[in-house]
User: Fold Band 7 protein from Vibrio sinaloensis DSM 21326.
Amino acid sequence: MMEQIITSGLLTPVILVGLVLLLAFSFFHVLREYERGVVFFLGRFQTVKGPGLIVVIPMIQQMVKVDLRTVVMDVPSQDVISRDNVSVRVNAVIYFRVVDSQKAIINVEDYLAATSQLAQTTLRSVLGQHELDEMLANREMLNTDIQTILDARSDGWGIKVSDVEIKHVDLNESMIRAIAKQAEAERARRAKVIHASGEMEASEKLVEAASKMASQPNAMLLRYLQTLTEIAGEKSSTIAFPLPMELMDSLFKRSGNSDKKE
Assistant:
C-alpha cells in the first residue's frame, strides 16, 4: 500500500496537508477564565488577550500565559532581632494575585520569586522595629503594616497583596523561661496589691465600726457577749474575756486610793 502511494506521487500532497493542518492548529490557543496571554509582535509588546479562543501567528507573535488566581505563598522562617534585642524566628504567609499581566511579565523577570524575596526582607525590616511584647500582642497591626508596604512596593509589578498573616513567633528556651518568670512576678505583684487594697478597706470599716461603738457604750458590751457566744459554740476549754481599758483604769484608781487610806 505504501509503495503504491509513493509510486503514485501522492506522498507529497499528504505531507503538505499535514503541515498545513499543524500550522492551522498552532494559530489557535484556548485560555481559561483565570488565564491571560501577553502577546508580543516581533519582540515588542502588542496586547493582552483572553480568556477564550485567541489567535497567535507562529514565529511572528509570541504569547506568555499569566495566572490571575490568588497565590498563597509561605514565607520561610526569618531570624529577626527585635528593638529590645531579643532574637526570634518568625514565618508568615502572604496572599497576592496578578492584576496587571503586562507589568507582571515586562517589569520583572519572575514575579513569584521577586514577591517572595520582597516579603522576606519586609518581614525582617518591620518586625525589627518593634519590641517582643508588640510582636506577641499586636499581630493584627503588624500584619497590616507588612501588607501595606508589600502592596506599595509590588504595585509596579502588577501585583496586589491582599493579606499577610504572621503564623509563628518562635523563642528560644531561655527567653521562654524569662517570660514565665516575668509573668509569675506580675501575678505576685497583683496579688500583693489586691491584698493591700483589702487591708485598706478593712481598716476603713474597722474605724467606722469603732466610731459607732464609741458613740453607744452598750454596743461594746453586746459585742463582748456575741464574742463569748461564738467562743462557747466552738467547745473550747479556755475562754479569753477581754476587758475594756476604762474598766481597768477605774480598778487601778480604786486600789490606789485604798492603799493611800491605809
Remarks:
- The first helix runs from residue 2 to 8.
- Residues 23-67 form one domain.
- The chain is about 55% helix and 25% strand.
